[in-house]
Amino acid sequence: MKQSKALAEYLIALADDELILGHRDSEWTGHAPILEEDIAFANIALDEIGHARLWYELAAGVTGTDKSRYPDQQVYFRPAVDWRCLQLVELPKGDWAFSMLRQYLFDAFESHRLEGVTASKHQPLADVAARIRNEEFYHLRHTRAWVPRLGQGTEESHRRMQAALDELWPYAQGLGAPLPGELELEEMVPHSHSLFMLWSSEVTQFLIEAGLDVPKSGGRVEVDRAVHSEYFPALIADLQEVAQLDAEAQW
Amino acid sequence: MIDTQWPRFMVFQQEAVGKPFIHNGTVHAPDIDMALLNARDVFARRPQAVAMWVVPADAIYTHTREELSNQGARQPADQRIRELADYFVFAKFDKQDQCRHIGEVQADSPQAAMSAAIKEFGSRDPLWWWVFPKSAVLSSAPEEASAMYEPAKAKTFKDQAEYPVVTMMREIRAKKKK
Hints:
The complex is a heterodimer. Chain A is mainly α. Chain A is built from 9 helices and no strands. Helix content of chain A is 65%, strand content 0%. By secondary structure, chain B is of the alpha+beta class. In chain B, 31% of the residues are buried. The A-B interface holds A 34-37, 39-40, 43, 47, 50, 134-135, 137-138, 141-142, 145, 149, 245-246, 249, 251 and B 6, 27-30, 33-34, 37-38, 40-42, 144, 146-148, 150-151, 155, 163-165, 168, 171-172, 175-176.
């Protein structure tokens, strides 16, 4: 019983990251620098929101809640203070370099996490991870194609990428903190800290090859997922505005 | 004004293993690797794909039926014999149809490839012809096909007309006014 509560908390944190990142990505729809990228980023945004739904549904299964209503309840009717996403995904979309680099940093971590969760002894968890992992392969391919092109492109693209990295790096350190519930799910889920070590050496090397200076220290890191950035309340208000006009509306 | 537009690439897609590659549209991209990723994003959803090719638009040598009947096939300006290369032959037979892969020829220039294609497949009298060297094609990797193209198949989609958003918003506003 205690374990199912921990698992639900873990799943909601995973889902919240995906949902908020997908929401920020979706803000590029109609605004990306070129039509093809507009479509690509809208695709990625939709994928992330779809992954959030899968995790929320699994959480509903674990807690015995109605699977068909639970994701919408969590997304549209949960107060900002109850969300458990990282500040990394809350930050405003910034410029194209910022959103692309954030997506890369997040997806590079997620690919390690999904690999670990795919091997989980908890079968429903492993199944969902495997399904998500197949789509994440492409996300990482897309962002891995862009990061070096921007890092080594023009003087301006390099400058923007470096500024994005300097700003994102401290927030990205939050990926290494254990997720809610993680410590009670021994042998069911991978340790965030071990994943972080893998991620850290991989992305550092990749960013250096992309012509960027990786900050020496992580800076101030807020790892508590109950503490949100100054940008989060406005994001949630925006996200929930229409649904809360009429909670009973049938869309 | 400086032209900041990226180069254009033709996108070809195969709907099932064993079916011919069919021209599906064009994408812009800074280079051919990005073009393949863009092609996936823009075109992989419907109809479904198992493989894609991208080809720089300027690598494609074309003739229309009209051009051929008016002027005949153009000859290469330079008549020296060069190295033979493999060319893909694509043709469009009907206005509603898309340009599809119909065969291959070997030739030492695009013009010679076109002449060889017309000689071999001319009885089918297509509306237009495309030839391009095999070496100009970037093909998706078979081992990546599942990750690149499978997820799109499982995605349900709704026609926008199925979302009664305008009606809904009107009702909500009317309710609020009361």
